[in-house]
């Protein structure tokens, strides 16, 4: 059975995974996450109307754009460049610099008052289809997460397969000072130096400057505007200023802009939604991820908030938690059962990138191993070995739901919430949570997906042979149940066709139960 409804079918080569740095990376991410305790504390729905990129009229400034950038004293490529092969998808990867004068956040919305202004120069890594005919009209702007002290994408990593096979343009935007030119107060990758762009490669990035995170909202908005317009002064959308002749999207006609950010970056998404959207309106939909949400605007543009199980009880016990909000207006919340704040796919990708950019090693990236959900003989399971639940499929499905919502006004159905009792999530006899957005890996499980231990990493505890045989009796029965769960998830919109085929193939290859003696019905 094929569930493939997607456009592109790349065949990128697989390599052996880089494992020596992975655990350290996971622990680093877990220790250093600067989680937005106020990331969900945005203004309530006090105003009526819709502010979208097609009907706003305020003055977001156009930045100067320079690129593509090359050279440098490190790898000769952008820091945090892709470790996967983008060329096999028919894509290019280029880095551009953006500069201008940014307003401080006091200019926007509920902050009120006049704004300070300061100069900045930052960067974005831009991915686009080489063939204009493959472009779907959507630009995804991913606000880099700097919780580890360096500039890391998150949504791009979790959803790159979907984004490229569907023809998006993607910009990974360095919006915060820690990623650009400011030493992290949170920690380091081991050396204590050389994490931000300027320190890492002054030959390539020495001209970058960031006035501080009070200016981050406007910097991100200006980068989006430069990408959306190609640098042209678009008075119909209110953009002002000028740009040079550099067009990072090479003339692609951007019809819609989606913005995304995870964890502390989701806090900035909340501020963009609440305080910037009515002023600038150059973003058409938002995907904040993995962060507390307690109040929200549901009257501006579509917002699909994608949370993991980790956020259901509150992060570190005091950020978020409580009863989740209901879906309403242009707001939807997905709580992905089994998923942790930091998943194994994400941490494996980051480990390969860190080995290359900070260790001088080859970036070895194996999608087969990184995409495992607890079925491999040599998986790093057990105590704090990482959460193998395949949350990336939910990222792809959420982006597709947001795309169709923005493009066709097709609202997603209300999503079920993770079950809670007295502030704690409710689990079954195997330790897996009840309720929430459910993918086949938790509907037909082969492991306990503990999303809430080991700080933000979680862990995976594969079932023993007796439990597997009690649940499924044979591999054929396991696959049959898994296929039914795949069909249900596709029908619900939580799993896309191409991802369904990939996930089902992994289940078929698992061979979890010893059928060597056979059964009378085989």
UniProtKB/TrEMBL annotation:
<feature type="domain" description="Alpha/beta hydrolase">
    <location>
        <begin position="66"/>
        <end position="504"/>
    </location>
</feature>
<dbReference type="InterPro" id="IPR045394">
    <property type="entry name" value="Abhydrolase_dom"/>
</dbReference>
<dbReference type="InterPro" id="IPR006311">
    <property type="entry name" value="TAT_signal"/>
</dbReference>
<dbReference type="Pfam" id="PF20091">
    <property type="entry name" value="Abhydrolase_10"/>
</dbReference>
<protein>
    <recommendedName>
        <fullName>Alpha/beta hydrolase domain-containing protein</fullName>
    </recommendedName>
</protein>
<feature type="region of interest" description="Disordered">
    <location>
        <begin position="1"/>
        <end position="29"/>
    </location>
</feature>
<feature type="compositionally biased region" description="Basic and acidic residues">
    <location>
        <begin position="1"/>
        <end position="10"/>
    </location>
</feature>
<feature type="region of interest" description="Disordered">
    <location>
        <begin position="49"/>
        <end position="80"/>
    </location>
</feature>
């Amino acid at each position: 059975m094929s569930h493939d409804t997607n456009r592109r079918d790349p065949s990128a080569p697989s390599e052996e995974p880089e494992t020596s740095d992975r655990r350290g990376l996971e622990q680093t991410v877990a220790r250093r996450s600067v989680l937005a305790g106020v990331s969900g504390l945005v203004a309530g729905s006090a105003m009526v109307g819709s502010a979208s990129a097609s009907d706003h009229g305020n003055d977001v400034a156009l930045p100067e754009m320079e690129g593509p950038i090359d050279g440098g004293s490190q790898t000769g490529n952008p820091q945090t460049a892709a470790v996967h092969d983008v060329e096999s998808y028919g894509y290019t990867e280029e880095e551009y610099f953006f500069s201008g004068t940014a307003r401080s956040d006091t200019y926007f919305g509920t902050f009120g008052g006049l704004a300070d202004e300061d100069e900045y120069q930052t960067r974005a890594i831009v991915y686009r289809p080489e063939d204009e005919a493959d472009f779907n009209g959507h630009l995804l702007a991913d606000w880099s997460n700097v919780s580890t002290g360096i500039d890391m994408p998150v949504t791009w990593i979790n959803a790159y397969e979907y984004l490229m096979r569907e023809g998006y343009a993607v910009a990974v935007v360095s919006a915060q000072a820690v990623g650009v030119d400011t030493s992290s107060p949170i920690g380091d990758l081991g050396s204590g130096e050389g994490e931000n762009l300027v320190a890492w490669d002054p030959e390539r990035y020495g001209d970058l400057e960031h006035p501080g995170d009070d200016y981050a909202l406007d910097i991100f908005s200006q980068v989006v505007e430069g990408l959306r317009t190609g640098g042209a002064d678009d008075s119909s959308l209110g953009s002002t200023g000028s740009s040079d002749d550099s067009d990072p999207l090479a003339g692609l006609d951007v019809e819609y802009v989606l913005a995304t950010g995870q964890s502390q970056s989701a806090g900035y998404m909340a501020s963009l939604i609440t305080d910037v959207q009515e002023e600038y309106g150059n973003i058409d939909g938002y995907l904040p991820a993995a962060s507390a949400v307690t109040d929200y605007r549901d009257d501006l543009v579509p917002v699909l908030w994608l949370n993991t199980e980790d956020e259901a009880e509150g992060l570190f016990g005091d950020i978020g938690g409580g009863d989740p909000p209901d879906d309403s207006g242009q707001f939807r919340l997905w709580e992905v059962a089994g998923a942790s704040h930091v998943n194994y796919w994400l941490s494996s990708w980051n480990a390969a990138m860190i080995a290359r950019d900070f260790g001088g090693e080859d970036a070895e990236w194996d999608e087969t191993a990184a995409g495992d959900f607890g079925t491999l003989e040599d998986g790093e399971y057990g105590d704090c070995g990482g959460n193998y639940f395949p949350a990336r499929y939910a990222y792809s499905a959420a982006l597709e739901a947001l795309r169709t919502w923005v493009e066709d006004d097709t609202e997603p159905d209300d999503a079920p919430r993770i079950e809670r009792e007295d502030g704690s999530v409710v689990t079954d006899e195997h330790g897996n949570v009840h309720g929430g957005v459910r993918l086949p890996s938790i509907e037909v499980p082969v492991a306990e997906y503990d999303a809430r231990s080991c700080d933000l990493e979680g862990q995976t505890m594969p079932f023993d042979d007796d439990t597997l045989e009690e649940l499924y009796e044979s591999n054929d029965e396991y696959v049959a149940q898994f296929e039914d769960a795949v069909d249900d998830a596709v029908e619900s919109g939580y799993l896309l066709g191409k991802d369904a085929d990939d996930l089902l193939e992994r289940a078929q290859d698992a061979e979890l139960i010893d059928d060597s003696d056979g059964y009378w019905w085989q």
